Amino acid sequence: MNAAFWRIPAYAMMAVLAVAFVMSASHPALAQSASTKEAPSDPLEKFLHQYVEHAGLPGGVVAIGYGEDNVRYAATGYASVRPETAMTRDRQFYIGSLTKMMTAVVTLQLASEKRIDLADPIGKYLPEEFRDRIANADRATIRDLLRNSSGIPDYLDGEFFFELVGRDPQHGWRNVELLPLIADREAYFAPGTNYAASNSNFILLGVMIEAVEGDHIQAVFNRRIFEPAEMINTSFGRYPRPALLARGFDDANGDGQLEDVTDYDVGDQLADGGVISTAEDMVKFARALFVDGVLLGPNAVARATTDTVFAGDGSYGYGLMIGSSDWGPVWGHDGIYFGYSGEFSWFPEQDTVVVFLANGRALNEVPSVTSMLMTGLFGTPE
User: Fold this and answer.
1) How far apart are CA 372 and CA 382, in angstroms?
2) For 298-327, what is each residue's pLDDT tens digit?
3) Around Cβ 36, how many Cβ atoms within 10 Å?
4) C-alpha 223, offset from chain centre
């Protein structure tokens, strides 16, 4: 459920799109009331429209949050096709692997409360019948899972899970139900010796969270993240689909055409990617996590962003991609879900977050939205 993130170069603006986003390098140029209806000539809307069109996406929303409660929004395209409904900034989207950041936050909260120890092997929290059947479960620590260094195989490798979804598209999958799909498979490597993105790591963390809290993951996240951060339009997926949820589109048949796949449950209640949210709420999440200390203290954030493993072009911390840009460090995650995609990028030196949510996956290869906005936001790098 991940997309490439890591290093954001200054030259990433494609000529066909870059001219659409011409802004002052200073943040005050972005300031505008969120309630003000923006003119069609708005440069951020023009950029987003061209980006979405070039990528072959149905629609999308971008939010840029900076300073104290300053947020700039743009929305373009369609939230649904039948009936044809324009995209608006208040729409909800599945955020895919952006969920992993939240699962990591809850895990670190439990550790700070001494309810768990990051050095505990994950097998300690699994149902007894799976402790010996999941590779490395007796040795891979919670810390290993958070950093994708456990070596535990990804349940999404192969097509078996999606075959199950096809047979029962509204199943309502729970984390513990995926244990049989993780079990009886060979480890990728010994714990702590390498990096490999595996959704199984965060499924197992979800199983641990529900076991320790003795509650459903939705209730846990409500108490620990959504309510404290005032994310009023964020939850795990559910049926019937919420009225605010943008319809999701994907090339389900491999024919190069997008189909409406909103009603397929590929992880509504799963800790690796089942959360639905809005651009506004994801900006709130960024501030609650990195600025206001509502979700984690500074020591926990520091550990989550510095205790990393090398992961190709960047590093991976605790549920966070740790990258660099020509303007300094950038932390966050990319994510995909069946019919949806997203980006979340926090620039600690600029106190700025960029959130992009779309109700589809790009049919054409394009750079990330974040990479294409940086010069407009921060100016030409020195």
Assistant:
1) 17
2) 999 999 999 999 998 899 999 999 999 999
3) 7
4) 20
